[in-house]
Amino acid sequence: MSKKIPTSRVDKLLGSMGYGSRAEMARLGKAGGIVLDGADLTDVSKRIPVTPDLPGRMEIDGEPLDPVAGLVVLLNKPLGMTCSHKEDGALVYDVLPDRWRRRDPAISTIGRLDKQTSGLLLLTDDGDLLHRVISPKRHVAKVYRATLARPLNGTEGALFASGELVLEGEDKPLAPAVLEVVSPTEALLTVTEGRYHQVRRMFAAAGNHVEALHRERLGGLVLPDELAPGEWRLLSEDEIASIFVS
């Protein structure tokens, strides 16, 4: 049995994607600002099939329509930005198109990087994907590059891999993590959990201090070298699937 294709009024669809109110979409349609399959779509009360190929068939003010649903953004998060909708200061959402803040469902970060951590960050309006990535049952690996205040003492690898390390203020041991030494004061750490400030607290438990922290990989998805801090791009279906490939 074939899956039924959902339909939506054009003004309601565009409103949920953050383009504007129904009244604004009505004015835009009458002005020739909405094009579907090469023809002006002036009646925004018209219902249309919401198919995956719609962004390739519809233009808004001369630009291709945004992805309708399941939008997944890869951001190289710079230092100093917060993964929040409401806090003061620079937010990760500031680098995205303004209209995306008005999308319904809303765009949220998949997990968080603290203000002083940079690197690979995903944002999405797909709640199911978000929960799959952060679910403890999935064991999605996260790889961080840590620059340390003091040289490694050689015991950290065994401690982190033991599955017996209990962070200060907690009573449940951490899942085993893998340490790869890059230099005396730099290491890659692979963890499968997302506890509060986990990597920083792990090195603190080993008697060291993290001076810089950068996330390089999530599952099988690697932060591309060509994506500069503050830059973002949409992920393809294959790239989304790679998150769950270790």
UniProtKB/TrEMBL annotation:
GO MF annotations, alphabetized: 16S rRNA pseudouridine(516) synthase activity; RNA binding
Pinpoint the Pseudouridine synthase RsuA/RluA-like domain residues: 72-205
Q: Known EC number(s)?
A: 5.4.99.-
Catalytic reaction list: uridine(516) in 16S rRNA = pseudouridine(516) in 16S rRNA
Return the SUPFAM superfamilies for the record.
Pseudouridine synthase (SSF55120)
Q: Which UniProt keywords apply?
A: Isomerase, RNA-binding
- Per the UniProt entry, what are the Gene Ontology biological process annotations, in alphabetical order? pseudouridine synthesis; rRNA processing
Q: Which InterPro entries match?
A: PsdUridine_s_RsuA/RluB/E/F_cat, PsdUridine_synth_cat_dom_sf, PsdUridine_synth_RsuA/RluA, PsdUridine_synth_RsuA/RluB/E/F, PsdUridine_synth_RsuA/RluB_CS, RsuA_PseudoU_synthase, S4_RNA-bd_sf, TruA/RsuA/RluB/E/F_N
Which EC class is the enzyme in?
A: isomerase
What's a Pfam family this protein contains?
A: PseudoU_synth_2
**Function summary:** Responsible for synthesis of pseudouridine from uracil-516 in 16S ribosomal RNA.
Family per record: Belongs to the pseudouridine synthase RsuA family.
Please name the PANTHER family in this protein's record.
PSEUDOURIDINE SYNTHASE (PTHR47683:SF4), PSEUDOURIDINE SYNTHASE FAMILY PROTEIN-RELATED (PTHR47683)
Q: What name does this protein carry? A: Pseudouridine synthase
What is the scientific name of the source organism? Brevundimonas vancanneytii
What gene is behind this protein? rsuA
